[in-house]
Amino acid sequence: MAKRTNFQNYIEYISLNIVVFITRLFPLKVSVKFSQYIAIFVYYFIPIRKKHVLAMLTQSFPEKSQKEIKLIAKNVYKNFMRTIVEIIFFPIMTDEEIKKLLVCTNEHLAEQSYASGKGTILMSAHLGNWELTALAFSKIYPMSVVVASQSNIFVDKMMNDIRTRHGFNIISRDGMAFRAVLKALKRNEFVAILSDQDASHQGCFVPFFGRLASTPKGAALFALRTKCRIIIALGIRQNDGVMKVEFTQVPMPNTGDEEKDIEIINTFYSKKLEDAVRKYPQQWFWFHRKWNTRH
């Protein structure tokens, strides 16, 4: 693949800014509604990874008809387009407006963990609007989020400015992530790690929809080595746009074998994520090549 030039990056960045400007000319509800039509247009006429999405859905839900699979796929595109529009509006929303878009169940788990003073690992996923979930949660507790860098340096800076403007810290997955996470935990922060992407051969292979999937070790590794708590936080978009987040405490294993303990934690996480995705398949980011790495 040819290396992207700064000129290409800049043109993409300018184009994105034009889209942002036009989107904000209308109220959020209007832009969200319009985004749903754009999503259907993209699904039919600019089918980015459409074959992949349909194939993964078909393998994951063999009991569903192709008509049902195609409907879920269309709604996956709709959810992603809505997520993009909501992110565009973040910078012009107040803290209170953002905070109201989060409802938590089992919030006592987060409260107890914060009171322990040892920092907390949040295992999350690309579910609902994951950016909104993180942003709204950071209005309640100090938080850092481990993120991957975008290929476009201008877009990467734009996204990180949006994320940090309203309060949470960014830890790049590249470079000195390990040290930055340790520092955040020492400051008694919640450190969110989205652990649902393929982790290549460096990951831990655990069952997900009946197939082994390479799952990142990072979240489990940090929790085991720092003895901090680890909580699964999965957000589901409600009809009114509010993200309903359920917290689940992860039982900490102690087999004496770190790799085995990581496998136990990731298996627990993957089961909880699969349960949520089975219930709300249209809200997960099926564009990922989750099963790309073979065991």
Task: Describe the protein.
The structure is a single chain. By secondary structure, the chain is of the alpha/beta class. Helices cover 50% and strands 17% of the residues. The protein contains 11 helices and 9 strands. It has helices at 6-23, 28-45, 50-60, 66-89, 95-99, 107-116, 130-137, 153-165, 177-186, 218-226, 258-279; strands at 102-105, 120-124, 143-147, 169-172, 190-194, 204-208, 211-215, 229-237, 243-249. Strands 1-9-8-2-5-3-4 form a 7-stranded mixed β-sheet, with helices on both faces. Strands 6-7 form a two-stranded antiparallel sheet. Helix 2 packs across helix 4 and helix 3 (50-60) crosses helix 4 (66-89). It is globular and about 55 Å long. It starts with 5 loop residues before the first helix and ends in a 16-residue tail after the last helix.
Layout: helices, strands, pairs:
Elements: H1 6-23, H2 28-45, H3 50-60, H4 66-89, H5 95-99, E1 102-105, H6 107-116, E2 120-124, H7 130-137, E3 143-147, H8 153-165, E4 169-172, H9 177-186, E5 190-194, E6 204-208, E7 211-215, H10 218-226, E8 229-237, E9 243-249, H11 258-279
Parallel strand pairs: 1-9, 2-5, 2-8, 3-4, 3-5
Antiparallel strand pairs: 6-7, 8-9
Helix pairs in contact: 2-4, 3-4
